[in-house]
């Protein structure tokens, strides 16, 4: 009896060890894997062919690459160089342009915590937001995501503002080209998203990011915690240092994370939650995060959302009697404000948005 009991325990223990190991290996295997994403050639004159390819990518993960996007290498390199120069400034100087109530300016280390359930502290990154500017005499000038930007002192960083403005313009042009393909892939007119209430006057935000350190998911330490983006389209330029991971099935028992490698000359694009809502859940806004390996990493996401007042509700081509709208309508600015407030720390200089 003793013996067999002892044996049972041994068997049980080794089973337990085995299953723990399997789980560990499964997690490790999944982290090593690289994702094979679709590449959309923005110079392809056959828009319908591109839209078809894009549709496949959007149904699968909403993550894809764009090539021949028209942003020249010199422009991209200059933007990264200037970004590095800003983050290399003494903290005291960076704090002079701390993020204001219009979501523009510097966000220090740990400012953002997108996945509080799994993060012990905020993201191991610092950032800088540059938003859309509408002229002072525009009736919407005082809206939370419009208005003037805050800039570092031009004597300290000459040409910095001009570089960022140029990249902002270029990135918006690329996003508008992607929006045309998205419209076609949803059986809408190519210019569907170009109306004034949509991308005619968008909320578009350039964000510079600087990561340092080593992530340890088992300790809740991440470059960027797991999240999906809030808006319509995100264009993500990186310096080539590995780190971005996606999880296509957020509800899986063991979440499978895949690296998204950088490809020279290509830009990673992903859809955000507004696109998922517009398409009635057909197009995916996939969970992603950044895992750091100890190397310094710079990235430049560019987020595009429609006009402040745009109501995001199920598109006409994404609903039928058998497929009723799944999400209630939301107003773009209210939704964005809520998402920003949920995921960022509040500084004393932040005024409560209404
Ligand atoms: C983001 C994001 C990824 C990266 O800012 O929303 O997912 O590689 N960034 O920095
Ligand atoms: Ni993101």
From TrEMBL:
Highest rank taxon of the organism: Eukaryota
Keyword Oxidoreductase found: yes
Family annotation (InterPro entries): DIOX_N, IPNS-like_FE2OG_OXY, IPNS-like_sf, Oxoglu/Fe-dep_dioxygenase_dom
Keywords: Iron, Metal-binding, Oxidoreductase
Residues of the Fe2OG dioxygenase domain: 202-306
Coiled-coil annotated residue ranges, if any: none
Gene3D superfamilies hit by this protein: B-lactam Antibiotic, Isopenicillin N Synthase, Chain (2.60.120.330)
Xref: Pfam families: 2OG-FeII_Oxy, DIOX_N
A GO term for molecular function: dioxygenase activity
Similarity comment: family membership: Belongs to the iron/ascorbate-dependent oxidoreductase family.
Protein name stated in the entry: Fe2OG dioxygenase domain-containing protein
Organism listed in the record: Brassica carinata (Ethiopian mustard)
């Amino acid at each position: 009896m003793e013996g067999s009991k002892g044996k049972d325990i041994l068997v049980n223990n080794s089973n337990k060890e085995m299953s723990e190991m399997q789980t560990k290996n499964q997690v490790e295997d999944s982290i090593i894997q690289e994702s094979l994403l679709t590449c959309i050639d923005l110079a392809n004159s056959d828009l319908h062919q591109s839209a078809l390819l894009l549709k496949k990518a959007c149904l699968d993960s909403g993550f894809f690459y764009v090539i021949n996007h028209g942003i020249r290498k010199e422009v991209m390199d200059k933007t990264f160089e200037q970004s590095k120069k800003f983050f290399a400034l003494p903290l005291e100087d960076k704090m002079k342009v701390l993020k204001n109530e219009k979501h523009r300016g510097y966000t220090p280390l740990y400012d953002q915590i997108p996945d509080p359930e799994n993060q012990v502290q905020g993201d191991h990154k610092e950032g800088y937001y540059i938003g859309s500017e509408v002229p002072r005499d525009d009736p919407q000038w005082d809206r939370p995501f419009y208005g003037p930007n805050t800039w570092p002192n031009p004597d300290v960083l000459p040409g910095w503002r001009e570089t960022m403005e140029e990249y902002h313009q270029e990135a918006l042009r690329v996003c508008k080209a992607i929006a045309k393909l998205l419209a076609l892939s949803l059986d809408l007119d190519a210019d569907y998203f170009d109306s004034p209430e949509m991308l005619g006057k968008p909320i578009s935000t350039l964000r510079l990011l600087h990561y340092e350190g080593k992530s340890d998911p088992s300790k809740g330490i991440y470059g960027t915690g797991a999240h999906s983006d809030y808006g319509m389209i995100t264009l993500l330029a990186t310096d080539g240092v590995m780190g971005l991971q996606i999880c296509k099935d957020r509800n899986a028992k063991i979440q499978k994370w895949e690296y998204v490698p950088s490809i020279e000359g290509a830009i990673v694009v992903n859809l955000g939650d507004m696109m998922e809502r517009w398409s009635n859940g057909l197009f995916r806004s996939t969970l992603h995060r950044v895992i750091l390996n100890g190397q310094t990493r710079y990235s430049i996401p560019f987020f595009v959302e429609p006009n402040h007042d745009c109501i995001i509700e199920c598109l006409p081509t994404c609903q039928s009697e058998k497929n009723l709208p799944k999400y209630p309508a939301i107003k773009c600015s209210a939704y964005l404000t809520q998402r920003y407030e949920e995921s960022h720390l509040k500084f004393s200089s932040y005024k409560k948005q209404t």
